[in-house]
Write a structure and sequence with these properties.
CATH superfamily of the largest domain: Endonuclease Chain A
Structural class: alpha/beta
Number of helices: 17
Number of strands: 16
CATH architecture of the largest domain: 2-Layer Sandwich
Largest sheet: 16 strands, mixed
Length: 484
């Protein structure tokens, strides 16, 4: 009897796995590498693989929240359409020689997502957590109208509480203070973390909430953005989350090396637009609507040209990935990449290899320390591929490298929340700035080569000296990388 019961259950799981495999293969909009990785997982781990797919593999639900379309900025919508039409007609006046040279990338970003080019922007680049948080807190202290924060990870620690106390103070003085955080990324927050903040008049919302793992089968899709807007005049975008570890207070990683931008200018309006859209999709209790105070007139200055580009699994194309592809494909002299996770899809891998084989100076920096051992092994596997194509690979040794940057030809660069990996390209909601400014790009290059002095170059000898077990580990990690 027990054997019959087990036989019935086994056949049921076999049938379920087969049906699910056909569904993955023919119905879902996944990359081929991701499809086959899931099918192999189902084949080798029938029961466990099925549960993993329910938790992490189901396609994203593209339905918008009840108030998701309530927010709309007619000025941004009209600017986007008008600028794209001028570019298509050849009548658009590019603000600089650099922007004109990279007009194909500008058009791509503007067409694939509402991301028109702005050019009156002041930039400040932060690579140190203390300096970044000091600047952010100083701007918040000076805020007069509103404070909007959107972070993947917010912690109940010293910097998290210091920031919260300041937000409570500003909210109690009548400012609009909105905090949007990813529910899974900020899962360590206690239930009463926002108690006094709510009492003071502040509002907070969890993005993609799931209180119990099995109540949301789409845990794999996360809001990974890290942006802040103060009074619609100052904006921040980059890789720093909010927690003590980003100030180098984590004993495991030590110094935290990241990159974040502080922006003043019209580009802040597009950070604002993204935040308000995300806020309305996250909460039905406190929707926001178009208000001129969110978009004050920016000072007319000669500054950096840039586009704010967002991407996510709710969009038909991977906008940030496409921007990276175009940047690297158009490179003539150099491509310098920093990323904590080097797990590219085939398209990104091929364009980097092609650039290197074509004589472009390709240099890629990854951490020497691993916060995810399996993903770090996958990163090393892909690094070997690129090393074989002539790229130079560095392992950053002065703490943990979390920066997400791409610098091309000393003229343009991108900074944001998107890693050079499949998760950022297809599964996470990300936001990056694409900057067309030689002066700022040169500063990014100086930063890169300063980091090189703190890094160890990974050569072919490193991989030749790996044990058989470590080589096997790298290959298994590479095989499963598309579903990590």
């Amino acid at each position: 009897m027990s054997f019959q019961w087990w036989n019935t259950v086994s056949n049921l799981f076999l049938l379920t796995n087969t049906v699910l495999a056909f569904f993955i293969l023919f119905s879902e909009r996944k990359r081929a590498t991701s499809k086959w990785a899931w099918i192999m997982t189902l084949f080798f781990l029938p029961f466990v693989g099925f549960l993993l797919y329910l938790l992490f593999g189901l396609p994203h639900n593209k339905r918008k929240g009840k108030h998701a379309t309530a927010y709309s900025n007619p000025e941004i919508r009209d600017l986007s359409k008008g600028q794209l039409a001028e570019i298509d007609q050849g009548s658009f006046e590019f603000p600089s020689v650099v922007a004109e040279e990279w007009q194909a990338l500008i058009r791509l970003n503007a067409k694939s997502k509402m991301a028109p080019l702005t050019h009156n922007n002041r930039l400040r680049i932060y690579t140190d957590g203390k300096r970044k948080f000091d600047a952010l807190i100083k701007d918040i202290e000076k805020a007069e109208n509103h404070i909007h924060l959107e972070y993947y990870l917010l912690k109940n620690d010293e910097i998290g509480n210091r920031l919260l106390d300041l937000l409570i103070e500003k909210a109690s003085h009548g400012l609009e203070v909105l905090v949007l955080y990813d529910d899974l990324g900020s899962k360590s927050l206690p239930n009463n973390f926002f108690k006094e903040f709510f009492r003071s008049g502040g509002k907070a919302a969890a993005s993609l909430p799931s209180r119990l793992p099995f109540t949301n089968p789409r845990l794999n899709y996360r809001n990974h953005r890290k942006i802040a807007i103060i009074d619609g005049k100052m904006g921040y975008i980059g890789g720093f989350n909010i927690g003590d570890e980003y100030l180098g207070r984590n004993g495991q990683f030590g110094y935290w090396r990241d990159t974040h931008l502080r922006i003043e200018g019209t580009a802040v309006h597009f950070l604002q637009h993204q935040f308000l859209t995300d806020w309305n999709q996250a909460t039905q209790e406190h929707p926001v609507f178009y208000d001129e105070r969110y978009f004050p007139s920016a000072e007319t200055i000669e500054g950096a040209a840039m586009q704010i580009v967002a991407s996510g699994p709710d969009e038909p194309v991977d906008q940030i990935k496409n921007g990276f592809l175009k940047m690297i494909a158009q490179a003539r002299k150099s491509v310098y990449i920093q990323t904590p996770y080097l797990v590219p899809d085939l398209a990104i891998l091929d364009v980097i290899r092609t650039a290197s084989l074509s004589g472009v100076d390709v240099r890629i920096m990854i951490p020497s320390k691993a916060d995810h051992l399996f993903i770090h092994s996958a990163s090393l596997s892909y690094a070997k591929n690129l090393l074989d194509a002539g790229a130079k690979i560095y392992a950053y040794g002065n703490g943990f490298l979390h920066a997400k940057t791409v610098v091309v030809d000393g003229m343009i660069f991108s900074v944001g929340s998107a890693n050079m990996d499949i998760r950022s390209f297809s599964l996470n909601f990300e936001a990056n700035a694409f900057i067309y400014d030689a002066e700022s790009a040169e500063e990014m290059i100086r930063i890169f080569f300063s980091d090189v002095t703190l890094s160890q170059e990974i050569t072919s000898e490193y991989f030749e000296n790996l044990s058989l077990f470590k080589r096997f580990k790298l290959q298994i990690a590479r095989l499963l990388a598309p579903i990590l």
